[in-house]
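Progress note, sequence design subtask.
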């Protein structure tokens, strides 16, 4: 019997979602691949049909799977996207270039929501949010400082993760796939924290992507992604 998630403390439906998403991310299940039926997943995972059904329903609601009545459930043709930018794991992007990805965790803890954050997340002022600051490296060179706030209702085990072994993106997509994404892109000069984290001069032009995501009809995350202009380009294509 397969064990869908190495973390036995995760809710069972989240374990099944991880079981499915791991196979999609690895390429074992590509776009349009037929996902095992509910009965097959019950046998593979050892969980109940109700639990399996919830996992499939949430992944379908997030646009990661598509369910065809009387035919089956299939991997959707693409990941969740905003109008301008794909929502992708930087570790995968770096690996696709044939380079080595690494991370440096600079902060991991809690932050109380001030008035602005309370409005942004739709929570009472003073509520606890999870906070992380992770620097992503490409062949040992810093290419992104990821400063992120997370709604604990969406990812209750966020602070328990080892982000030198996985990325915040991978964990969040496993437990709370994004249903909606908002991006704002601007050119900035780095503040002192970003300059030190990215090992750049204070006058180095940077590209800042401010991202907000929703999951289960709640604001899930706000992230500020700072990239040195000399090491990063933003591109895309319409199909």
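Output:
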């Amino acid at each position: 019997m397969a064990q869908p998630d190495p973390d036995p403390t995760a809710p069972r439906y989240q374990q099944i979602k991880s079981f499915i998403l791991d196979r999609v991310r690895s390429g074992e299940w590509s776009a349009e691949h037929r996902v095992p039926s509910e009965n097959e997943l019950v046998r593979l995972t050892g969980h109940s049909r109700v639990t399996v059904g919830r996992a499939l329903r949430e992944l379908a609601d997030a646009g990661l799977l598509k369910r065809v009545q009387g035919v089956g459930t299939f991997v959707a043709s693409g990941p969740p996207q905003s109008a301008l930018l794909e929502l992708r794991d930087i570790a995968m992007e770096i690996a696709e270039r044939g380079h080595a990805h690494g991370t440096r965790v600079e902060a991991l803890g809690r932050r109380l929501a001030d008035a602005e954050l309370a409005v942004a997340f739709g929570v009472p002022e003073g509520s606890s949010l999870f906070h992380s600051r992770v620097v992503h490296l490409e062949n040992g060179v810093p290419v992104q400082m990821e400063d992120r706030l997370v709604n604990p209702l969406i990812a209750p085990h966020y602070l328990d993760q080892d982000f030198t072994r996985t990325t915040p993106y991978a964990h969040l997509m496993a437990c709370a796939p994004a249903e909606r994404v908002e991006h704002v892109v601007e050119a900035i000069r780095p503040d002192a924290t970003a300059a030190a984290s990215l090992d750049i001069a204070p006058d180095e032009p940077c590209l800042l992507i401010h991202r907000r995501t929703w999951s289960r009809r709640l604001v899930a995350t706000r992230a500020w992604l700072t990239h040195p202009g000399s090491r990063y380009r933003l591109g895309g294509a319409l199909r």
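Residues 33 and 74 are 5 Å apart (CA to CA). Work on this subtask will continue into the next period as scheduled.
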